[in-house]
Write a structure and sequence with these properties.
The complex is a heterodimer of chains A (262) and B (423). Chain A has 262 residues and is of the alpha/beta class. Chain A has two domains: 1-88 and 181-262, P-loop containing nucleotide triphosphate hydrolases (Rossmann fold); 98-178, no CATH class. Chain A has helices at 51-58, 81-87, 104-110, 120-124, 128-147, 163-175, 193-210, 221-227, 245-249, 252-259; strands at residues 11-22, 25-36, 40-44, 66-71, 74-75, 89-91, 181-185, 213-217, 230-235, 238-243. In chain A, helix 3 (104-110) runs parallel beside helix 6 (163-175) and helix 5 packs across helix 6 (163-175). The radius of gyration of chain A is 19 Å and the shape is globular. Chain A starts with 10 loop residues before the first strand and ends with a helix. The model of chain A is unreliable at 1-7 (pLDDT under 50). Chain B has two domains: 2-70; 93-404, ABC transporter involved in vitamin B12 uptake, BtuC (Orthogonal Bundle), CATH 1.10.3470. Chain B contains 18 helices and four strands. In chain B, helix 6 (113-138) packs antiparallel against helix 15, helix 6 (113-138) crosses helix 16 and helix 7 (147-163) crosses helix 15. Chain B is globular. The model of chain B has no long low-confidence stretch (mean pLDDT 83). The chains are: A alpha/beta (262), B mainly alpha (423). The A-B interface holds A 59, 61, 81-83, 85-86, 90-91, 93, 97-103, 105-106, 109-111, 113-114, 116-118, 120, 123-124, 138, 142, 145, 151-152, 154-155, 157, 173-174, 177 and B 282, 285-286, 289-291, 293-294, 296-297, 300-301, 303-312, 318, 414, 416-417, 419-423.
Chain lengths: 262, 423
Amino acid sequence: MSNSPNTPHRNLLSVSDLTMQFGGLIAVNGVSLSVNDGQIVSIIGPNGAGKTTVFNCLSGFYRPTGGTINFLGEEIQALPDFKISRKGMVRTFQHVRLFNSMTVIENLLVAQHRHVNTNLISGLFKSRSYKELEAKAMYRAEYWLDKVQLTKYANWEAGNLSYGQQRRLEIARCMVTEPQLLLLDEPAAGLNPKETKDLDNLIVSLKADYHVSVLLIEHDMSLVMGISDRIYVINQGQPLASGTPDQIRNNPDVIKAYLGEA
Amino acid sequence: MQRNLNHALFTALMTFVVSFPLLGIDLVTDGSSLTIEATSVTTYYYMTAAIVIVFLFQLFRESILSVFSSVPKLRLPIHLYSDLPQSRRNRFENWFTLVVVIVALVWPFVVSRGSIDLATLVLIYVMLGLGLNIVVGLAGLLDLGYVAFYAVGAYSYALLSEYFGLSFWVALPIGGLMAAFFGFILGFPVLRLRGDYLAIVTLGFGEIIRILLNNLTSLTGGPNGIGGIPKPTLFGMEFGRRVKEEGNTLFHEVFGIAYDSTYKVIFLYLLAVLLVLFTIFVIRRLVRMPVGRAWEALREDEIACRSLGLNRTIIKLSAFTIGAAFAGFAGCFFAARQGFISPESFTFIESAIILAIVVLGGMGSQMGVILAAIAMTVLPELAREFQEYRMLMFGLMMVLMMIWRPQGLLPSKRPHLELADVK
């Protein structure tokens, strides 16, 4: 399984020599990776390898101490987080972060903040553009609720959903922002095998039907190996290997990092 | 049993330790010096009785409490209301609002002058509560210095009318804008703070404004305050006995009726009703607008907000600014009603009362805040003879509320959004 045959290989994200240092601790050291249009790329590595730190750097939660991040031909490593997500790179979190006491549909509406008319005056007087944009936001929210099979929970408080549903809602909440690149941080953690299978289908469909590229951190190897176009392995902050799932599966260094020295 | 006994002995001892110095001894002035004397024997009887009751209660705590818990839970009307399905709730709310507005409009013509005055005060607190509700209830930013914006609004009108002769109607929007501006100024340094730290900074800000007003004697008159603030007019009609401002007419002369000072009180009351209705309308709209959703989302999870492209700086600032603006309106009206303001009116305790209204009413809930404002203003007035115990009663009420109804009188319920094709 390599790059999908029908997509142009436009480069979406290219990271070179990314370094993140906290005082004396080098959490990420010289990691480079690239994601092309329509690809699913995975980052794997043992616990504490620095995968989530890479995500935090990409999404602007940390400002990397070294290296460059190029997204859609623009260097973004110095941009604040909200600007990066507005450019079309949106992430999920290792521990689900929903707006728990807001309803499911409200969660999806909040995410479209930049798509709606936030002008106070037009909101107070319900101007036409305000109403149109609100209706569009509502439509998009409904569409994605249906897509992740949560329509009948639309008016539930998000905190009352089951864990698997919360995971799906988090992905839907990213998708309503109409991203180009989705960063998923361990989306299968805590899911049962059936839910993992559903998630697998959902991610593949995001790529096939919506041309969204996905950068994935995951421990579930069957998921990673099944859907990835390319895999990067990180160990103790250092890049260890990269390649297709088959190359990674047979790489002795990777096996050693995961299973320890024989 | 042994543990209960120890516990009971200890609490009885504590009761003694607390009550004896406070109640058991009297300080009597003897010439120029104070002497300590024992109080009357009856006080000692009461104290002993209290100690015995505390001891017995703690000793048989489990059995007493189990009797209480076997009593079926109270079903207050409030509980019944909260359980109503959304559609019936909406209908009920609409009817309720209509009835309340009608009552509010008829009110001044059927009750005494004192009651109208009290109702006007309630309305000021409703406005303040609703404004603070944006900051604390919706955006989740604990603001202990809200009274500062109230003061800014009040002083804006007082100073503008004193130095520039501006009328109430011109000063009202300016007062709101000034308060909003101060909210914006305060918003900047506190953007990165949360929780306790934010509370302390806002507390400090409230005090700074008060102390500034107190010491800026040349401008604000310091502790002497500003007097003779003109009352609002109705299309150039004054409500006094004689015209104060050049070019104005008199209400009773225009309508050809005898002068009555009650007209002024009723007018002020109706003006307050108007301002409150305006506040309610604007805030109801805001909550359903993107900015309202963003405030709540920011309260729920700031990190998730950032990851979704929400600019938290702007969202927090907007909450602070808009919340402050309503305090500014309330302050303007307060200055006009009182005719005299001094820094005395803007102490920390005011902030505390407004915050108590928000918490008591249920964070984020408009109806709750209105109910709580009525309770917090009317109850102390009704219990005037217990004036000195007012704070004690507030404290007790707060403790009881936190135990039995921590979510407030009428906790806010999520608006249900109708989807086009939900089966």
